Amino acid sequence: TADDSVVTLLDYGAGNVRSLRNAIRFLGFNIKDVQTPEDILNAKRLIFPGVGAFAPAMDVLNKTGMGEALCSYIEQDRPFLGICLGLQLLFESSEENGPVKGLGLIPGIVGRFDSSNGVRVPHIGWNAIQITRESQILDDIGRRHVYFVHSYRAMPFDDNTEWVSSTCNYGDNFIASIRRGNVHAVQFHPEKSGDVGLSVLRRFLNPKSEMTKKLAQGKASKLAKRHLEVQGHCLSDVRTNDKGDLVVTKGDQYDVREHTKENEVRNLGKPVDLAGQYYKDGADEVSFLNITGFRDFPLGDLPMLQVLRHASENVFVPLTVGGGIRDFTDANGRYYSSLEVAAEYFRSGADKISIGSDAVYAAEEYLKTKVKSGKSSLEQISRVYGNQAVVVSIDPRRVYLKDPKDVEFKSTRVTNPGPNGDQYAWYQCTVNGGREGRPIGAYELAKAVEELGAGEILLNCIDCDGQGKGFDIDLVKLISDAVSIPVIASSGAGAVEHFSEVFSKTNASAALAAGIFHRKEVPIQSVKEHLLQEGIEVRM
Ligand SMILES: NC(=O)c1ncn([C@@H]2O[C@H](COP(=O)(O)O)[C@@H](O)[C@H]2O)c1NCNC[C@@H](O)[C@H](O)[C@H](O)COP(=O)(O)O
């Protein structure tokens, strides 16, 4: 019946639910949005994607009466799928800015990962789950990786064993999914876990559906090293060319112009097409960096938002967008907060946003005043969307030193001495696409933005950008040892060995490349096969 293709979605307006809508539509289902508690009680099947923080979510559920309706819907064992926070809210309470009371349907308290176990928090990436009880929607997962992005988790113990259907190891064994009858919930994001994730959604939406194409089994055992394409990750550095078309470009040490008479912007293809291709080729994440965002105004840059909306319709792995995120006053004196800019990016399909120049200014201010004003774009966006949704992109330039004492900033001994035989270097941060050097080092910046609420660091290197000679191992080691949030190594990838080198010599959690993929010099799969051969866990 017509009703069979409809799923009711409880979207209380925080964060990016667009990815899930895209996945549900991709699977051929229509969405009915919950407006009133009655819509919950009348639902044939209900999906509750929780994004953001526990307390504000419980606030909305309590104020709107949705919480009560949810409890009776679940107690009637009606078809339900909770995702991420949508799982956590089912528990008694959470320590997140708490304790905060939850819906109390499942015994247990949601707590923060214990970073003293040596794990980086947030838990961001592709990890393996151990199925502990038959759970129909997980039947196709086999030993494949699924995508997690969270700082809090619920723990299995005697009183909730009857609910737990799988666990995942990250420092400790936390609850990855629950199931009782028709009630399901998962801590990972099926809408961002590629074909494996789509199979979980398909099995919930249509329990009788027999998977046409059996999924490959996989050998997942733990958190995989991530390999990002910068589309800009497969990053694409995107900008408008002189004709005003939005193109994927790629710089040599950030210079994106062809060395021809026309001196035009290097055009490496259409962002949406490339993103879709990288997804099919197995990219773990895709990012768009609007490299002239510092000049233009993102909300005025409709082509960029269009690209994001279209790309997210066919890319079911995490999408990060950056460029120009800051408070802004337009020519008509209309003031826009960076939160409004980020909100539009999330509404358009971004799972994470990336802040470049504005994070440098926030860190300088913080180091000067030692006060967290809470006003910076970084602090505002991570408070509302959670730090796991905020990446800080660092654009440093290497400066060689005879003696570390020559500068006040943290320096490191370099593997390859400088042109004058200098044994040390510090890494000066820049803003506006490498155009302006700032009085702060990458080390000081990384530590400051971690304290201000960044969930991840995208560590580029202007010197290595587009050179194909490998990542700056000294820089990646310096920064990945300095912070306890995940660090993405970026700039300089030229061969598969460069990926195993950065993962074996540093604590980078992910590695990003652009040029070699745009120019189709190295297939994504060959990077993954090489890492597997080297015994490095990757998502296949
Ligand atoms: N002229 C440029 O290239 C350039 N100018 C600005 N950006 C990026 O755009 C964003 C601007 O953000 P804001 O407006 O400062 O918040 C920043 O994240 C900054 O890194 C630029 N690109 C940064 N791109 C660097 C990498 O992300 C690149 O993709 C790797 O170096 C991998 O390249 P490779 O594998 O080919 O070596």
From TrEMBL:
Recorded GO MF terms: glutaminase activity; imidazoleglycerol-phosphate synthase activity; lyase activity
Please verify whether the record's keywords include DNA-binding.
Answer: no
Main localization category: plastid
Protein localization: Plastid, Chloroplast
Q: Which UniProt keywords apply?
A: Amino-acid biosynthesis, Chloroplast, Glutamine amidotransferase, Histidine biosynthesis, Hydrolase, Lyase, Multifunctional enzyme, Plastid
Which residue ranges does the record annotate as region PRFAR binding?
356-357, 393-395, 465-466, 491-492, 514-515
Domain Glutamine amidotransferase span(s) in chain numbering: 9-203
Pathway in which the depicted protein is active: Amino-acid biosynthesis; L-histidine biosynthesis; L-histidine from 5-phospho-alpha-D-ribose 1-diphosphate: step 5/9
The record, for SUPFAM superfamilies, names: Class I glutamine amidotransferase-like (SSF52317), Ribulose-phoshate binding barrel (SSF51366)
Task: List, alphabetically, the InterPro entries matched.
Answer: Aldolase_TIM (IPR013785), Class_I_gatase-like (IPR029062), GATASE (IPR017926), His_biosynth (IPR006062), HisF (IPR004651), IGPS_HisA/HisF (IPR050064), IGPS_HisHF (IPR014640), Imidazole-glycPsynth_HisH (IPR010139)
Descriptive protein name: Imidazole glycerol phosphate synthase hisHF
Species whose genome carries this gene: Sesamum angolense
